[in-house]
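--- STAGE predict ---
source: upstream dedup step, 1 unique chain passed
mode: sequence only
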Amino acid sequence: MSHDVPLERMHRVYDAVKTPFKYGTILTPPEGAVLDCPSVFRHRGRWFMVYVITTNYVGYETLLAESDDLLHWRPMGKILPFREEGWDRWQADGGIALQDHTFGGSAELEQHDGKYWMSYLGGALQGYETDPLSIGLAYTDDPSIARPWTRLPNNPVLAPWDPDARPFEKKTLYKSNIIRDRARSLEHDFVMFYNGKQEGPGTERIGMAVSDDMIHWKRFGEGPVIDNGPKGISGDPQIVRIDDLWVMFYFGHVWKPQAFDTFACSADLVHWTRWDGPHLVEPSEPWDSTFAHKPWVIKWEGVVYHFYCAVAGKARTVALATSVDLRK
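--- STAGE serialize ---
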């Protein structure tokens, strides 16, 4: 039985999510710093963005910004700062978890055990994504306040040295996205997608893990679910639901020129059909001339907003592309 999503359905998804109009840079860092990895959610009638910063490439910290219209953003402060010690002392790159994954839905965060959750890649060494990196979890009672989230004491919840780590993830674990699967398609409540790097060549592939309590996780499947070849980098997955399909937004690099955002579709969360048509965003403007990648895509009041990391030389900012031209 073929699990491939028909090409006609893939084209319909592309038409539903494409964002050909680049609005431009919406968050810029202070001098000596760069920004990365936006994830956007709605809470109590306002918009918030979780994003990361590194100054002089010492390490990642996670910050919060707010907006009234998804276009104009105000930085608020740190929510995952550096620590004095520990496995994640110098690296804490967070992204929101348990968002309403219905495309065009509320974009709000769901609670589990009375808490709002975030997953993050963490590491003990200084530098830019210095190996090894693992995945941890943190929580808060109010995601709209710029104060440090509480990190789980049993972190990391997934590490490249775990006994069940598969070959594609034995060097480092990167960005993750957790959804609640109320249908329990995989016989578990929570599903995590993340990209891992293997020993040797810097190939990155996307794999899965599952949990019933958000605290204890186990790998799902024998290998990755997104694999773009021995020289490919596929990362930073975000999962949404469009009608009866799961859609994964992710970025690609190396296996095609530059770095860009694309997507894949699945009927069961396990078997994914990769889109091979036009990229959702790619380098084309002065602010993203090097890379246009690391997607977070939402639909609100009929407009698709595609947030991404824009790289131009050494400059890294958060930029936005949309399905309609909002610059008019």
